Amino acid sequence: MNIHNDAPKEGFAAVAEWMAIDPDNETFVLRRFNDMSARNLLYLQCEILTLRKRFDSFDRKVARIDADMDLKDAAMTWETLLAQNDAGNVDAREYMTLVLELRKKIKDYHETLMLQSNIASLGRPSDRVLEASRTWINGGSKLRADGSKLHPRIGGLAKDYLDDGDDLAAVKSHSDVDLLSRTLRRVWPVKIELVGDGIHRIGRFNEHSISLAVNIISVVVSAILLLGPITALYLVNSNLSRLLMIYAFTACFALSVGVMTNARRIEIFGATAAYAAVLVVFVSNGGLSSS
């Protein structure tokens, strides 16, 4: 479906079109509402706590010595509970009501808890994306003397939804957050478009091109760091020179892994140790050690 029309859109339609036109979906930046989510979970929790108290009261009633035997049977056997509920027994109906109410509320609580866990795992928008979104939606990067937006695209309370950066979530966060990818995003050629004030500009680019460039650079650097040391160590006869070269190439390898990947420190250490071991084995085997 083509979202573009000849007539320019305004309001929420314009903001939605601007968010949807980004092929990388970086502009899907929205509020988490952490405070409201916490309040909702607390209320659901209180409902279940109330149900637990009612169950405890019913259990004490069943445990009494002089309790009705039909009630005891209903508490012990599910089929008996169903039969007494269908027969109109007041206690059985009360107990069945509690069971069904618990089933619904505990399901709502657990689903909400899992949803909140998913929301908490969403990343925050990058400074670059957040600045571009604020500039476009606010109609400029500056504010009026009274602190209001220059030319906001939407009005009401919604016009300030990007102000609280700590409560924002990026629906799609980048998996490539390494230094090389971040550097390329800052210098990559962009398609320029004006914002509402006609002065400020924002730029767009395709994230796929960044990933492709990073992959190509990574392959080239990997080949250089593998073939380069092998060739150099083969041509050098001095053991001291070879040792210094192993030091240098190992440092370059560790630096490249840290810059071009999202590897953790322990992973960088392990990969570097394996790389250095390969170079040492190459020098010590095959008759390459100096006589």
TrEMBL record:
Pfam families found in the cross-reference section: DUF6594
Membrane spanning stretches: 210-236, 242-261, 268-288
InterPro entries assigned: DUF6594
Top-rank taxon: Eukaryota
Domain DUF6594, residue spans: 13-280
Key words, A-Z: Membrane, Transmembrane, Transmembrane helix
PANTHER family documented for this protein: DUF6594 DOMAIN-CONTAINING PROTEIN (PTHR34502:SF4), DUF6594 DOMAIN-CONTAINING PROTEIN-RELATED (PTHR34502)
Entry protein name: DUF6594 domain-containing protein
Organism (species): Pleurostoma richardsiae
